[in-house]
Design brief:
Length: about 260
């Protein structure tokens, strides 16, 4: 199908469809993701990529199709179900609490308490230092409110929160939007670190340069359907743009049902 990678995929989405008011936003879309791999899902606004990902994250319920996690069919009806399967979404807005520090953000809603029922700040900071040490060893600003951190540092707090609770599958929505070059490099380093840990990442991005820097494979959508799949090393940026704009599948890609048929 969409991958030449061997072994059981972390996630396999098969023939997924969802309609709103009789209009199919996603039409029989299939894509898979393997451990330690970044797959970019591309397409114009309205192509169906965000809707597809929202089904995986539990925000929308699918009408048809199946989702497999580690080879077993997954029943995902809401975000809590998705978390249970180790699926976490990091939205562009990051959803971090600006007025508290990194440790408090990591444990937001899942705080560690002492035997007396008070917040165990020391335990939370200790765990925060451990997980941030894995991800971003240069991060030292544990005592400051998150509002004082740079975009790249805020991104690492959001990612640390996801992996602290054993996420194996990350959905990253425009992770480098509005970041400067240095912060973009920071996020790139974070993604490399996550890949080494065997975490799989679905990347939603409009930035084609970003995609070629970060992703192992691309899956291109148009009008709710998959145009095709390719390893980034097998296609050029122009060819991927041709897939996005015209639905034209180049020689280095595997066509999907949405590919333009040669007349």
């Amino acid at each position: 199908m969409s991958s030449e990678t061997s072994g059981t995929p972390l996630v396999q989405i098969k023939d997924l469809s969802i309609a709103f008011g009789g209009i199919k936003a996603v039409d029989k879309a299939s894509v898979d993701l393997h451990p330690g791999e970044v797959v970019a899902i591309l397409g114009h606004n309205g192509a169906g990529k965000s809707t597809l990902i929202k089904v995986l994250s539990g925000a929308y319920k699918r009408d048809e199709g199946q989702i497999f996690v580690n080879g077993e069919e997954a029943d995902i009806n809401n975000p809590r179900d998705a978390k249970k399967y180790g699926i976490e979404t990091i939205y562009q807005t990051l959803a971090v609490a600006d007025n508290v520090d990194a440790a408090a953000n990591l444990y937001l809603g899942r705080e560690i308490l002492t035997n007396y029922g008070t917040l165990d700040d020391a335990a939370m900071e200790s765990q925060a230092r451990k997980v941030m040490g894995r991800l971003n060893p240069n991060f030292q600003r544990f005592k400051e409110p998150v509002s004082k951190l740079s975009g790249g540092q805020r991104q690492s707090v959001a990612i640390a929160r996801a992996i602290l609770f054993n996420a194996r599958i990350l959905i990253m929505d425009e992770p480098t939007a509005a970041l400067g070059p240095q912060e973009t490099d920071q996020v790139s380093d974070l993604i490399q670190q996550l890949k080494q840990e065997g975490i799989g990442i679905f990347l939603i991005s409009h930035d084609i340069h970003d995609v070629f820097d970060l992703a192992d494979r691309v899956a291109v959508m148009k009008n709710g359907q998959m145009v095709g799949y390719a390893k980034t090393e097998d296609v050029t940026k122009d060819e991927v743009l041709g897939m996005i704009i015209m639905g034209k599948c180049p020689a280095g890609a595997t066509p999907g049902p949405g590919a333009m048929q040669e007349s």
